[in-house]
């Protein structure tokens, strides 16, 4: 089975800025389609939506209120 990682995207904050996982919009184990918004990240009171890079089943690797950095793993999409 193949999988695709969901990572904190480049360009949403500099290295000193705190990025927080604000909300998961899709539950663990749910099916998502490519480009569905799966979570929201909060950066200096601005929310950024993170889309699914592929279709499949979501496996969350970060929790709400976790502090993350650019490039950190948020979740994995496992192909069905």
Structural class: mainly beta
Distance between the termini: 7 Å
Strand order of the largest sheet: 1-8-6-3
Q: Under CATH, the topology is which?
A: OB fold (Dihydrolipoamide Acetyltransferase, E2P)
Shape: elongated
* Gyration radius over CA: 12 Å
- Please outline the major beta sheet: 4 strands, antiparallel
Describe this structure in words.
The chain is mainly beta and 80 residues long. It has a single domain (3-78), classed as OB fold (Dihydrolipoamide Acetyltransferase, E2P), CATH 2.40.50.100. The protein has strands spanning 3-7, 19-24, 31-32, 37-43, 46-51, 56-60, 67-68, 73-78. A 4-stranded antiparallel β-sheet has the order 1-8-6-3, with no helix packed on it. A hairpin with a 2-residue loop joins strand 4 and strand 5. The chain is elongated.
Task: List the keywords.
single chain; 80 residues; 4-stranded antiparallel β-sheet; 8 strands; OB fold (Dihydrolipoamide Acetyltransferase, E2P)
